[in-house]
């Protein structure tokens, strides 16, 4: 009965060749021939279909070049500036008055907390500390996990300064650009002209709250970041308002954060950058039509990081550093966000001094050829779907600007614009996959969508009738 039904299907179905296999009148040899032909066709049909599926899953996007440069704008790179003097003396005095810290204790504590605020992988060994500092820390009950909070409390956010002349501000002539305080691997710094959302700010990363309302940053004509195109010959901005003795500045893509291990410029007066930036962008349908594994890049909101609520490649590298530091020193430095379900222990200053300097090269580069301890640390970070590669053509220190402008900072200028940009595109979409599989099945077997429906129909409804005794 069952074989009879299958024979019935073979006789009727749309796949060519099947009916010859079961035709009674043909010689046995002919039937074997047809059977092997059908088997070979099915085999190759599957091979080709699987290669289409593989192409869809792994090679469906590519990076193309766009050359119609007259029609697009390029984002001017961001500037992150870290002042070398961190804390505000007035806030510190108030704090000490409240907590009853005086005299030499106060001096020692200032020295300690100021250096802690200015610490990063290069200079952990400079954090001072002695019995006096220990005494103050004990008196205050200051735990390592509150280091960053205290530093934040004792830092004055210069973007809130009432006097325009001393405010940390980012502008080009009458045009104003957003600037904010951010938490970096070098403590609290200031970032101007960036595409990143408000999640990348000191307050959000330390406390999980959006930045306080800043009336100097609110008017609608303030730009998020500066752009320029082929017809603008010279686009520039200045990030100014630092009263510290020197600044460290980093110029980087407007779609990413600074990297503490490369490209910092030290300046006592201010620094001038001449940069060139080439972008890589994404076609609109990339986000909806592909998965992360298919396109091998991530958008900002597609974070799978533990410590950070958004994704960029450099943030991902920071997370690798967190994990590496945790593996080697069993705790993490205070300047990382730690608002997670199971916070990692934060290092006290003694561990920072004793454990970190030894590995500073390894932590900075995430790789060290002299590191015999273990195999390379696993760190895989996807590219940003939107990014820019920034080349610094020249840097100059601006001498005399402090007297002229009352404060120091940095100046970024773009004089020449790229004549091409890269674009991530979908070249093999879901529709292409369907067409490809359908075409393959049609080519090898004469099979089609309706054939598939017929197959399902035959083995459900028709089988049901057959079992009940109705035959057609
Ligand atoms: C902050 O750290 C940098 C790098 O080690 C150092 O050059 C600078 O002098 C420090 N700032 C202060 C105020 O000590
Ligand atoms: C920082 O300031 C906030 C609000 O004023 C306060 O609640 C918090 O305890 C302070 N943190 C430290 C470590 O002093
Ligand atoms: C994030 O995803 C990448 C691959 O897409 C993976 O290698 C990495 O381990 C993931 N990170 C976390 C923290 O899950």
Q: Which ligands accompany this protein? A: 2-acetamido-2-deoxy-beta-D-glucopyranose
User: Judging from the principal axes of the Cα atoms, what is the shape?
Assistant: elongated
Mean pLDDT: 90
Amino-to-carboxy terminus distance:
14 Å
Strand segment count: 17
Helix content: 25-40%
Task: Count the DSSP helices.
Answer: 16
The main β sheet shows up as: 8 strands, mixed
Description:
α3 runs antiparallel to α15 and α5 packs across α6. A hairpin with a 2-residue loop joins β6 (179-184) and β7 (187-192). The mean pLDDT is 90. Helix content is 37%, strand content 20%. The protein has helices spanning 2-12, 18-22, 28-58, 89-99, 103-117, 131-140, 147-154, 202-207, 285-289, 292-295, 313-329, 349-354, 360-365, 401-405, 430-445, 449-468; strands at residues 61-66, 73-75, 78-83, 169-172, 175-177, 179-184, 187-192, 227-229, 235-242, 247-252, 265-267, 271-282, 297-298, 383-384, 387-397, 408-414, 421-426. It has a domain at 2-60 and 438-467. Strands 1, 4, 5, 9, 12, 15, 16 and 17 form an 8-stranded mixed β-sheet that branches. Strands 6-7-3-10-11 form a 5-stranded antiparallel β-sheet. By secondary structure, it is an alpha+beta fold. The longest helix has 31 residues, at 28-58. It is built from 16 helices and 17 strands. It starts with a helix and ends with a helix. Bound molecules: 2-acetamido-2-deoxy-beta-D-glucopyranose (3 copies). Residues 292, 304-306, 380, 382 line the site of one 2-acetamido-2-deoxy-beta-D-glucopyranose (NAG). One 2-acetamido-2-deoxy-beta-D-glucopyranose (NAG) is lined by residues 84-85, 118, 122-123.
């Amino acid at each position: 009965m069952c074989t009879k039904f299958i024979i019935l299907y073979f006789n009727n179905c749309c796949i060519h060749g099947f009916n010859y296999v079961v035709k009674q009148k043909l010689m046995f040899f002919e039937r074997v021939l047809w059977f092997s032909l059908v088997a070979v066709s099915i085999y190759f049909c599957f091979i080709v279909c699987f290669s289409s599926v593989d192409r869809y899953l792994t090679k469906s996007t590519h990076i193309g070049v766009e050359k119609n440069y007259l029609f697009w704008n390029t984002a001017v790179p961001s500037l992150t500036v870290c002042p070398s003097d961190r804390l505000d003396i007035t806030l510190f005095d108030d704090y000490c008055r409240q907590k009853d810290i005086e005299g030499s204790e106060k001096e020692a504590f200032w020295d300690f907390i100021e250096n802690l605020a200015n610490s990063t992988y290069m200079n952990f060994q400079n954090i001072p500390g002695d019995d006096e500092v220990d005494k103050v820390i004990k008196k205050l009950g200051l735990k390592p996990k509150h280091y960053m909070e205290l530093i934040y409390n004792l830092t004055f956010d210069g973007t809130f300064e009432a006097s325009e002349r001393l405010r940390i501000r980012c502008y080009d002539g009458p045009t104003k650009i957003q600037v904010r305080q951010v938490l970096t691997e070098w403590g609290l710094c200031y970032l101007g002209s960036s595409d990143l959302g408000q999640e990348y700010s000191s307050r959000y990363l330390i406390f999980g709250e959006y930045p306080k309302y800043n009336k100097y940053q609110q008017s609608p004509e303030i730009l998020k970041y500066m752009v320029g195109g082929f017809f603008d010959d010279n686009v520039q901005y200045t990030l100014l308002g630092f009263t510290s003795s020197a600044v460290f500045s980093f110029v980087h893509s407007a779609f990413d954060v600074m990297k503490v291990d490369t490209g910092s410029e030290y300046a006592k007066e201010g620094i001038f950058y001449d940069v060139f930036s080439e972008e890589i962008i994404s076609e609109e349908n990339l986000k909806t039509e592909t998965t992360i594994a298919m396109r091998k890049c991530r958008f900002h909101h597609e974070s799978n990081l533990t410590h950070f609520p958004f994704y960029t490649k450099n943030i991902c590298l920071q997370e690798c550093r967190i994990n590496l530091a945790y593996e080697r020193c069993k705790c993490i430095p205070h300047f990382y966000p730690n608002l997670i379900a199971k916070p990692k222990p934060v290092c006290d200053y003694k561990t920072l001094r004793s454990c970190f300097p030894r590995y500073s090269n390894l932590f900075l580069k995430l790789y060290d050829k002299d590191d015999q301890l273990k195999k390379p640390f696993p760190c895989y970070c996807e590219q940003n779907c939107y990014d820019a590669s920034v080349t610094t053509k020249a840097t100059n220190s601006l001498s005399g600007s402090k007297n002229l402008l009352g404060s120091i900072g940095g100046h970024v200028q773009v004089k020449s614009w790229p004549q091409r940009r890269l674009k991530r595109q979908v070249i093999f979409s879901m529709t292409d996959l369907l067409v490809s599989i359908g075409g393959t099945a049609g080519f090898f077997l004469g099979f089609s969508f309706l054939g598939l429906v017929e197959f399902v129909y035959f083995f459900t409804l028709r089988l049901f009738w057959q079992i009940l005794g109705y035959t057609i």
